[in-house]
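wait is this the right file?? whatever heres the structure
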């Protein structure tokens, strides 16, 4: 939402609020990352049961589970204090929303932010098509998530069409998210030669990379459809939906 109305908020306020929510998210990330890493390994085993290397991988899974449990236990030990800090950050941000200096309730309030998200995502889609490296895919994913949530916000303008676009963006974001999770698992596996042999590491990496290739093929197909328009054409289409909706519901 901050990125959607960024042009009205101004740089200083936008950056301050963005930092508030970034800090809140960091306070919750460690246990989640450990859980995702463990689940990614289990999903890989379930998808490729015959090729999955059981020896060593079982020890790796046990180690990841133990680390996840330790992080959760540690979080619970100090949960009240840490979660209170995070909750306070979010509550304070919510209270400030009523004071945001928004100057319009017309298309110019949301149009520039939505178009910016689409344009950035489209550029990063093109970059990822040329070079599907982990970092490029990850950056593209972040902009896809922006577009998904922002389209969902304005989907009241024409729910059948914009709801479908938000759903497609969600599917794309999930494919790119799983791609990133597999990259994180590969990185973690290469550090675990004390638990798993190099040949077993190589087999795990090969399976992870195979799944990444499948996910990227799906993402490329979705991206081609979602980013088929130029940013100017996308902005014109979204603006026409918005204006038609406001004309039908002038009191909103």
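ok assuming it is, sequence goes like this
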């Amino acid at each position: 939402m901050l990125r959607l109305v960024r042009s009205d908020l101004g740089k200083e306020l936008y950056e301050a609020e963005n930092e508030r929510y970034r800090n809140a998210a960091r306070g919750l990330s460690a246990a989640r990352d450990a859980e995702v890493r463990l689940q990614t390994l289990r999903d890989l085993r379930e998808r490729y049961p015959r090729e999955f290397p059981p020896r060593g991988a079982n020890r790796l899974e046990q180690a990841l589970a133990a680390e996840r449990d330790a992080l959760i236990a540690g979080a619970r030990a100090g949960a009240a204090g840490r979660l209170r800090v995070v909750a306070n950050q979010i509550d304070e941000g919510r209270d400030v929303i009523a004071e945001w200096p928004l100057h319009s309730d017309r298309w110019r309030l949301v149009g520039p932010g939505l178009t910016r998200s689409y344009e950035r995502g489209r550029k990063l889609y093109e970059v990822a098509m040329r070079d599907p490296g982990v970092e490029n895919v990850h950056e593209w994913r972040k902009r896809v998530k922006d577009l998904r949530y922002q389209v969902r916000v304005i989907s009241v303008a024409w729910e059948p069409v914009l709801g479908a676009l938000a759903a497609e963006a969600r599917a794309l974001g999930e494919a790119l998210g799983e791609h990133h999770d597999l990259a994180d698992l590969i990185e973690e596996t290469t550090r675990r030669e004390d638990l798993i042999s190099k040949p077993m590491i190589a087999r795990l990496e090969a399976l992870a990379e195979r799944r990444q290739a499948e996910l990227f093929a799906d993402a490329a197909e979705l991206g081609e459809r979602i980013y088929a328009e130029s940013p100017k054409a996308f902005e014109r289409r979204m603006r026409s939906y918005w204006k038609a909706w406001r004309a039908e519901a002038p009191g909103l």
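The chain is about 80% helix and 0% strand. so i think its the right one actually
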